[in-house]
Amino acid sequence: SGRVIEPIVSRHRKKVNTLSIDPGRDWLLASAGSDCLVQVYDVRKLHVALASFELPKASQAAEFAPDGSSRLAVTCFDDRLRIYSLAHFDGAAAASTIKAAADTATSPTPLAIKHHTQTGRWVVPFRVTWTATADAVLVGGMKRTADMYDAATGNPLASLSSPELMTAIPSRNAAHPNGRAIAAATNSGRVHLYQA
């Protein structure tokens, strides 16, 4: 539409790391920033966030599930991946504002998955991403693995690795839309493909 989204970016006190639009409700936009905030906006009314989740540490990613279920996967430097269900936002959600601190009784209780997310200085920070069917999330692992977790329970499903070939940490991962392959990219410039 040619509208400037500057008001969204200026609401974060530090760097914005990701933006994600919900494929099922294309008026929902999530932003994750280094200021420990994940915010959700209605793009039709940008003046105030629908939800603002305060995290213990910076967030490197917030990504909506590709199935349109309005689930939001969040990566935080506190060694937790979180999955929030935002299905309660309806088309009239912009008329009211919901402010909540993450992991409190007033916010949607996220599914929290323990995962080592502190990559240090020399590795690109991890960003959780969804599998094609949105039944699992995928994230890099410090043991040179691409780790997959069940999106409903948080239980580990797989830890993909090629010890002799993958000599660096795969900090960026993607699932093929047909669900049959997973790509894991390392800082060494290699992409490793796994058959799902």
Automatic annotation (TrEMBL):
Family statement: Belongs to the WD repeat DDB2/WDR76 family.
Gene Ontology molecular function: DNA binding
GO biological process, one term: regulation of DNA damage checkpoint
SUPFAM superfamilies per the UniProt record, alphabetical: WD40 repeat-like
Keyword field: Repeat, WD repeat
SMART domains to which the protein is assigned, alphabetical: WD40 (SM00320)
InterPro entries registered for this protein in UniProt: WD40/YVTN_repeat-like_dom_sf, WD40_repeat_dom_sf, WD40_rpt, WD_repeat_DNA-damage-binding
GO cellular component, one term: nucleus
Taxonomy, superkingdom: Eukaryota
Pfam assignment, any one: WD40
UniProt protein name: Uncharacterized protein
